[in-house]
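Input.
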Amino acid sequence: MDRPRVGRVFKLFSPWQPRRSRWTVPAEEAQGEGKKETEENIREASLSNYSGGPHFFEYLFVVSLKRNHSGHDYEPTITYQFPKRENLLRGQQEEEDRLHGAIPLFCFPDGNEWAPLTEYPRETFSFVLTNMDGTRKIGYCRRLLPAGGGPRLPRVYCIISCIGCFSLFSKILDEVEKRHQISMAVIYPFMQGLREAAFPAPGKTVTLKSFIPESGTEFISLTRPLDSRLEHVDLRSLVRCLSHEHILQIFASAVLERRIIFLAEDLSTLSQCIHAAAALLYPFSWAHTYIPVVPESLLATVCSPTPFMVGVQKRFIQEVLDSPMEEVLLVDLCEGTFLKSVGDEGDVLPQKLQNDILSSLAQGNNDLQTLEQVNEHVSGPFVQFFIRTVGHYSSHIKRGPDGQGNFQERAFCKALSSKASRRFLKKFVKTQLFSLFIQEAEKSRTPHAGYFRQKITEYEEQKKQKKPKEPKEPKEKTVK
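Output.
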């Protein structure tokens, strides 16, 4: 890829100049300064952008490698898109122009030094673009060798959607891949039917009717997981790559908004693990630079002095190690080790709560079968951690006559009986994670009736039941 084009894309996504363009650096939870919604509010906002209910997707792109002007290297180029440009409205065409500058770069983040191949493992990965108003677009990618014989170059199918549901879009990519092996023309009716279908509610199924030459009519069922809170992640990847202790220390680093770099050979592992690590912060959302797979041309991101959570292919490990970095946690997902650390990751969280998390993670692993079961088992202890440390937040928001809340930070921190928990809380309340969360709570006149609130209520009920009853005083015997 020629440098001028890379320069333009870098400015478009620069994490240090968020006001100069409509799109910021790819980030699952990045927001404009001083403005942030909770995870559940963002999801609701992104699903209500369309008057007739949310579309499954906005665009489908096919990105192929083409010879660049020098004739020596290959440049990723969009070779197919749906819907076609002439079918877009003017505003959509302007947005599409911005996407055209970014999509190829993130579909082939590993540079432009390619050669025709006879074998290549298919990879499914993702990237995320965040608008300045907080709305998000996720790029779901499938990279593989096209059908045929002899040496050939990989291509990428990329679906752009505002909806986070990785398992469902993986199945959609399977269908796109199957049709593309037959003919590009077979993709259009399938994608048109998908675009016209309403996105199902959690736990519900939508069935699409599709005709394939020589196979006849097919009915394709797409089911959304019942637990929509975790439908955008696969926590199995994190558990496969890292020990529970390492996962806990990554969580501790993220809670204090430090710089975290994940290294892995393949794109799938990188994107899955970084999404999983960010998901452990629920009900809080990472509000800083967040790039599941950093393109080679944007490796300077790892020198940023601000917090970030990024994934880098291990082939670029030397460039990363040679970069000037301070207080960074460098995670090798291939070896399951830390290559760099601050050194105090094991002391950030209260020791008793750390032990409780590790104990919960170690129990009942053999009984887990489905992805939803694994996700709930791994995420549950971290949700409980936040319930026990910040679950009392709503009782420390005082409201004025206009309904506007005012958070009482000092009383909130003092409310915990444990000194270790109070020390942690004094640091945590200063993070942007907490500040943006509490800002939303102050604005909301009634407590948000989401998963976190439900779990807080359950925890409080359990505490009441476990509270020992005061012994009754013995009745005095009457002496006759």
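Confidence is low (pLDDT under 50) at residues 1-53, 476-480.
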